[in-house]
Structure of Fimbrial biogenesis outer membrane usher protein:
Amino acid sequence: MTPSQLDEPIIFDSQMLMQGASGMAIDTTRFEQPDRNVPGSYRLDILVNGQWRATQEIELRAVAGLADAQPCYSGDLLTRLGIDLTRSLRGRGSDQQSAVLPQGLTCDKLERFVPGAAIRVDLPEQKLHITVAQYYLQRPAASTYVDPSSWDSGVTAGLLNYDANLFSVQSQGRRDTHAYSGLNMGLNLGGVRLRHNASLTWSPTLGGRYQRGYAYGQVDLTDWKSQLLVGESTTSGELFDAVSFRGVQLESDDRMLPDTQRYYAPVVRGTATSNAKVSVYQRGYLVYETTVAPGSFEIADLQAASFGGDLRVTVTEADGREHGFVVPFATTVQLLRPGSIRYSLVAGQLVDPGLRGRPPVVMQGTLQRGLDNNLTGYGGTALTPGYVSGLAGMALNTRFGGFAADLTAASTELPAGQTQQGSSLRLSYSKNLPNSHTNFSLLAYRYSTSGYLGLHDAVALQDRTRNESGRTSDFARVRARFDANISQGLGADGGSVYLNSSSSQYWQHGGRTLSFSMGYSNQWRGNFYSIAAQRSHSASPGGLRYAGDQDDTQLTFTLSIPLGRDGHGGAVINSYASHDRRSGRQMSTGISGGFNERGDASYAVSVAHADRQRGASSNASVNYRLPQGAFGASLSQGPDYHQQSLSASGAVVLHPGGATFAQTLGETVGVVRALDAEGASVGYAGSSIGKDGYAVITSLSPYQLNQIDVDPQGVPNDVELQVSSRSVAPRAGAVVMLDFPTRKSRPLLIDSQRSNGQRLPFAASAIDVQSGQVIGAVGQGSRLVVRSDKSRGSIRVEWGSDADQQCQVDYALPERHAREGSAFELLNLVCHDIDARPAGKERVL
């Protein structure tokens, strides 16, 4: 629909409405324009081409010659919404050069400044719609990117996640009881986020104990697209091995970038000889399509699957000719888009409870940069007294896969005056083969010389040498490590296989470890089955890390059979069989399912037998999930033991409206406010409006558009949601308030006729006499369908502007709302002529 069509009135033919024998005509002109916009300031959601961009105050002003108040805007607002005003200047003809945006606010039609654009207010939905051609949008705005000016920092709030468990077992006349509660606490003050985690443990013999974990404060650095953290945390481990620290960290945050820059994807370059259509396919799916002008073209905002898969590009010329090419796309963790930068800087003390001496000061920095379409360079350094290391590497995208190689050199000075120097070479490979359904998600190999030590190992060895006078040759150091994760699909009905493997060799005494697992899974007639093998082996090299040798192989088989027609009965029979050296053969059979269709209450019962037990054991558990948290209980009984446990997990959010209990929280949280709308679903599993009018959305995506819908089903009959959808782009860690205004009113069905017995005309308006607001209309069979927030009042029915085209219904409602089982108040009242209405004749049902 064009902007001019949006402004055209809608014209109804009054003769299409059947008026019966009375022949009363309806004045349909009142339907030809929507409700008038009144001047004032309104907080509106702003949508550009249907995509939410911001929520802010918009001023509506009266404009001469127009019945509706018009929205006012500024050039700064349009720019923040992603409209490219420099392109709009170039897009106008010479006769339009005077239409330049003035300083400050303007209430003119947007089409004057941006060709073909339109702006429209929808006050009932509290939205401002802007329509603009794609050409006049900035590149990030053409995607779902939300401008930083619209990121919501949230409100002052307190957060508490808890995970509690009580476990008790009685065996051989002795009872052991243990209680645990994990706590994650937070406090948001403006843009500052404070976080702390800890645990509480209790047992009859040891009593209670409080163990603190990390504690830090964090803020966004919007201009730098980064996070600043002060306190205790852990490095990412992406380039160097992860270490815990107490200090300061400055780190880029890719989540603040537009979608098209967040993940690696190659730039597609080609040439067209005419106005051509360019289609990009990945694994057979169309992922991008656009029209380009003759000449060279470049697609830099591609949003393909982040795990890779070559891109097949097809160029369809205007005359129908087609030509194409393939762009390699295989990603590794290190690959970035051309020109993109990722960095991290850390300075502080190393945190390790195993150190006996004073924790040393450490510094670590990393930098990655996309050099061109297929190449990314990266490097870093790590420092602490007596230790220095440097890393340099490259990541390469080829049609054979994604490769990365880096070399780390390190020098360690020990307290005894010794110096150890070494290096470590790391190679990795990643590839997705769509035709064979094979995914090499990780193939990595690392080789280290005997003198190489990572930061954490170097500090541990320095501490051991200083405090224990131990031999450095006994310290376990990795010589070589190989990791592989491979999955293979076998067609639509063939199932899938996987292989995961990790092996390490040590310099000391030939020590080595191996972890290997492989499996096959499939479905047959709705029944799921899988076969898996797992082997672990370790030969201790002596020293700190391995106490002895282990060698074990486990084989498992599982079978799940859904009960009920088409596998939707809600209950599942689960069987499990395994064999390993320690336990011998083990078998288990049981049934699990839900108590209701919502799945918020579940049960599981099973019996098991093992070769090395004297008899069978039985297990039972129940779990119940509420909007306020999750709770569970379990029982087990075997030949010589009895076990019981209770568990509870959830969260509490303290916000300006009070305290609300919820399920376990994610990083970013939303609080919905819809007073009197108890029972309404918030569109997220397990979340609904409570008695206090609040609900918690446990997880939102930071820096991205989140749409939250409230389903009015379940809301009391006398409560009306005035808005059912909200959009927000929260900052990471924020607690954002989402207000859904409600109106408490009682739905009425009034069977009414005029004093002369004539029926009321269909579609006539019902207007509250006191407020002048339209509160309903006449439906079929001369029945008024209205909502009223008053216990008594008068309704004026209008089907025209003349006095004989109006009448009035006076009503008085009973003390309580609708009858049992009825959603509406049912009334039978006369609609009196305006000048013949009897005084005081309100009727109570």
Observations:
- The radius of gyration is 35 Å.
- The CA atoms of residues 5 and 118 lie 10 Å apart.
- The mean pLDDT is 81.
